[in-house]
């Protein structure tokens, strides 16, 4: 088969051709985050140092095509601590509390938690402190949503 631009469904690919196509597709997907965003697995993350309320931070992330970041593992949490850097001690995440419990703004399931014992879900009423933030040294914290903090946006690498 030459360099014909038309797809030929009768063409059978060699094992090497399949490996090459597979490699380039997944390499491109893995590194397809916009400039300034950081890639981890199939997600892109952006640390924004300008302090905002939780609501304004979420709105900013939506404008960029994402949401405030959810966290699904210790590995992701450690990565977010790393991109937050040493000069910032807090950053908004996408966690928020409703009467049914804690949820992520991006709709991900809330199956992993990393609460700092000082901010545990039983230590404070959820209605008084309904928004979650990352602490670079101690796990998650919670506060009123109006507190200005830097924040972390996330989006799928496949939507970029």
What do you see in this structure?
By secondary structure, the protein is an alpha+beta fold. It has a single domain (37-159), classed as Mannose-Binding Protein A, Chain A (Roll). The protein is built from three helices and eight strands; from the N terminus they run αββαβαβββββ. The protein has helices at 15-30, 54-63, 74-84; strands at 38-40, 43-52, 67-68, 90-98, 101-104, 131-135, 139-143, 149-156. Strands 1-2-8-3 form a four-stranded antiparallel β-sheet, sandwiched between helices. A four-stranded antiparallel β-sheet has the order 5-4-6-7. Keywords: Disulfide bond.
Q: Which second-level CATH architecture applies?
A: Roll
- Shape call: globular
Helix content: 10-25%
Mean pLDDT: 81
The tally of strands reads 8
Pfam families: Lectin_C
Protein name: C-type lectin domain-containing protein
Domain C-type lectin: 40-154
Keywords: Disulfide bond
């Amino acid at each position: 088969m030459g360099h014909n631009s038309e797809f030929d469904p009768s063409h059978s690919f060699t094992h090497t051709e399949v490996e090459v196509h597979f490699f380039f597709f997944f390499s491109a997907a893995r590194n397809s985050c916009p400039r300034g965003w950081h890639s981890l697995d199939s997600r892109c993350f952006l640390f924004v140092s300008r302090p905002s309320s939780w609501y304004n931070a979420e709105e900013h992330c939506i404008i960029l095509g994402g949401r405030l970041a959810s966290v699904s593992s210790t590995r992701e949490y450690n990565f977010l601590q790393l991109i937050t850097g040493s000069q910032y001690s807090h950053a908004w995440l996408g966690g928020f509390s409703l009467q049914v419990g804690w949820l992520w703004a991006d709709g991900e399931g809330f199956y992993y938690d990393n609460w700092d014992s000082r901010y545990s879900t039983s230590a404070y009423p959820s209605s008084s402190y309904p928004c979650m933030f990352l602490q670079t040294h101690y796990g998650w914290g919670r506060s009123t949503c109006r507190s200005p903090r830097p924040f972390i946006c996330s989006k799928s690498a496949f939507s970029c």
